[in-house]
Amino acid sequence: MNLKDAVSAIKGVGPKKAEALKKLDIDSVEDFLYFYPRSYQDWRQATPVGQLRDGELSLIQGTVKLKIKGGYGKKQTLKLLVSDDSGSAEVVFFNAAYLLNKFEVEQVYFFYGKVSVEYGKVQLRHPEFLKSGQKPAYGILPVYPLTRGISQTDLYKWQHMAQHLLNQLEEPLSQQMLERNKLCSLMYALENIHFPQDRNHLKAAKYRLVFDELLFLQIGLLSVKNRITSEEKGIVFPKEITTEFFVNRLPYSLTEAQARVLEEIEADMETDKVMNRLVQGDVGSGKTVVAEAALYKTVKSGFQGVLMAPTELLAKQHFNGLREEFEGHEVEVGFLSGSMTAKNKRETLERLAEGNIHVLVGTHALIQPTVQFKKLGLVITDEQHRFGVNQRNLLTEKGQNPDVLVMTATPIPRTLAVVLYGDLDISVIDQLPPGRQQIITQAFHKNNRASAYNFVGQQVAEGRQAYVVAPLIEESETLENVISAEELHQQLQKEFKEAKVGLLHGEMRQAEKDVIMEQFYEGTIHILVSTVVIEVGINVPNATVMVIENAERFGLAQLHQLRGRVGRGRHQSYCLLLSKGETEVSKERISTMVSTSDGFAIAEKDLALRGPGEFFGFRQHGLPDLKLADLGRHTKILLQAREEARAILQKDPKLLTEEMAGIRAKTIQLFGENAVLSI
C-alpha cells in the first residue's frame, strides 16, 4: 500500500465507507495523516473520585458496586455506582439497552468523560469506558471529527494503518531550516499529532504543522503575487507636482487620517520603487477622495490612471464622481464596461490609446487585451477582495511598472491583511469625516417584524427611502424560516400600497439592474428589496433605513457593509436587524452590530466567531484552508514563517534547486500548477 493510493486500499474501507470519508475530505491514504484530531483524551492518569471537579474532562478507575436499570425497550437508562478508595460517582447512560450486559458488579473499569457535580453528587454522563486491563497502549487518544457512517473506532484503526507508511513521506524542509526554526521532522510531527507520547511531543508536533501551513501559504502568496523584489524600477513622479491645488479646491477639508494616507501615497509615488499600497478604511471614511488626489498627481505628471471596480453600478458611481471632482482641472475621464455598444467601446479605446482619456474607470472589461494605454502610471482597484490577484496583474502589465493602489472598505485585522495582501504596504484611514452621523442599529426578533416595518412606513411617509435585504433570491425547499427577496417583494407590495417597491437581485441582466438602481437613486422607487448585490452599491443619500431579514444568515463583516449603504446624507439613518437565530454565535453577531459601528472592532470579532478559514474566504482566493494554524493566535509563528518564505524565494526564486524540490512539490500540491505563476 502507498500513501497516494485511494482510501479503498485500506483494509475495511469499502465503497460506502469511502463515500462517507469523502465528506471528511479524505480521498487518499495520505489524507488520513493530514486529518487531524479535534481534541484528545488523556488516559494516562486516573483522578481519584474524591478529587473530581465540575465541568472537567477526567479519567476515573473504579469498581462497579451497583447497577440500576430503568425504563423500557431501547429507551432504557442504566445507572452505575462506581467507587474507589476516595469516594463514589454515578455513571449514567441513556438509551442504553445495548449496554445492559456490558458491565459486571464488583469488576473494575475505566471511565472517561465530563464531570458534573450538583449538590455534592458526582456524575459522569455517557462516558467512554474500558474494562481494567484494556487501557490503550497510547495514553493520549485522538478524538476526530465524524460524519454519518464513520466511527471513532474506524478512524483510530485506519489512522494506525496509515502511520505504518510514514517512512514514505519526503521531508520538504532542509536540515538547516529545521534547526534554524527549532522544528521537529515531518515524520515525528505526523506521528505525534495523532498518537502523542506526552503533551511535549504533541506541542512540538503542532508547532511544526502550524509552521508548515503558514510557510506554504506565504510561499504560495509571494509567488502568486510576484512580490519578490524586482530589479525593474518604477515610475518616479515629480515632487514639484503636488496634490495641494486639487485638495484646496475641495468643498471640505481632509481629515487627519486622509491627509496622512495621502502623504504616504505621494511619498511612494516619488520614489523609483513600484508602489503597492493597500488603503483600508471603514465605510464612509473617505478613501475615494484620496484615490482621486493620487489620480490628479498621475495625470498632471503626464501619465494615465485606471480605476477598476467590481460592479458596473460602483464603476458608474466612481465615473460620475470623478467627472464632478475633476471639473475645471482639465482631466478627461472615460468609462468602459462590458454592456457598452461596440461603437462606444471602439471610440473609448481609440481615445485611450491616443492619450486623450486621462483616467479610465470600468469593470473587468478593463483587463481585455484590446484595452491599450498610451502611458499608464497608476492602477487603482476598489474592493480588492473581489478580484483575483491575477486580474490585478493583467492590469499592471498594460504599463511600464505602474504604481498600484488597492482600496477596500472591508476592514481586515492587521494580521490577516499582512497575509492576504503579501508585500503590500498598508495604510489605514481610521477616522470618519466630521458631521457623519452614527447609524442607529436595532435588533428585532421574528415575532416583532411588524414594528420594524411600521417604522419603515413612517420613514417613507416622511419622504425617505429604505433598503430591505433578503439572503435568498427565491424560495428554498431546503431552508426553513428563510425568506427570499421575491417573497418579500410580493409581501411589501401588498403592505405598502402607496409606495413603489422595487426588486433587485444578482440573476437580473445588468441593464435591468441599472434601471432599478437609477430609479432608486432618483427617488421613484421608495423601498428596494434586494439580495446582497447592494453590499457594494451606489450612493443614495436619501436612503435612511436598512432592513436586513434573516440577519443570522450573514457574517458580521457583511452586515457591517450592508449597514454602510445608509447614513450617507444629512438625515438620521437606521439599521434594523430581523433575526430568527437562536444560536450563541448568531446572538453574539447581532449584539456586536448593535453595540459598535467600528469596522475594525467588528472585523476582529468576526475573525473570532468564524475562524480564519471562513473569514478569510481562503477558497475564494484559491488558497488552501488552514487546519491547525489560527492567524489570531499564531502571529509569532506567522511572522517567523514569513521571514523563512522570503529567504527561500530570495535564495531560489523559481525553487529549482535540489534542496527546494520538496518545497516546490508541496507548494504546487497546495496551490495548483496554474496558481504558482512565477515558479
From TrEMBL:
Belongs to the helicase family. RecG subfamily. CDD domains: DEXHc_RecG (cd17992), RecG_wedge_OBF (cd04488). The gene is recG. PROSITE patterns: HELICASE_ATP_BIND_1, HELICASE_CTER. The lineage of its organism: Bacteria, Bacillati, Bacillota, Clostridia, Peptostreptococcales. Keywords: ATP-binding, DNA damage, DNA recombination, DNA repair, DNA-binding, Helicase, Hydrolase, Isomerase, Nucleotide-binding. The keyword Transmembrane does not apply. Residues 462-608 form the Helicase C-terminal domain. The keyword DNA damage applies. It catalyses: Couples ATP hydrolysis with the unwinding of duplex DNA by translocating in the 3'-5' direction; ATP + H2O = ADP + phosphate + H(+). Residues 268-429 form the Helicase ATP-binding domain. This is ATP-dependent DNA helicase RecG. GO terms for molecular function: 3'-5' DNA helicase activity; ATP binding; DNA binding; hydrolase activity. Coiled coil: none annotated. It holds the Pfam family DEAD. InterPro entries: ATP-dep_DNA_helicase_RecG (IPR004609), DEAD/DEAH_box_helicase_dom (IPR011545), Helicase_ATP-bd (IPR014001), Helicase_C-like (IPR001650), NA-bd_OB-fold (IPR012340), P-loop_NTPase (IPR027417), RecG/Mfd (IPR047112), RecG_dom3_C (IPR045562). One of its GO terms (biological process) is DNA recombination. Gene3D superfamilies: Nucleic acid-binding proteins, P-loop containing nucleotide triphosphate hydrolases. NCBIfam families: PRK10917.1-3 (NF008165), PRK10917.2-2 (NF008168), recG (TIGR00643). Its EC number is 5.6.2.4. Plays a critical role in recombination and DNA repair. Helps process Holliday junction intermediates to mature products by catalyzing branch migration. Has replication fork regression activity, unwinds stalled or blocked replication forks to make a HJ that can be resolved. Has a DNA unwinding activity characteristic of a DNA helicase with 3'-5' polarity.
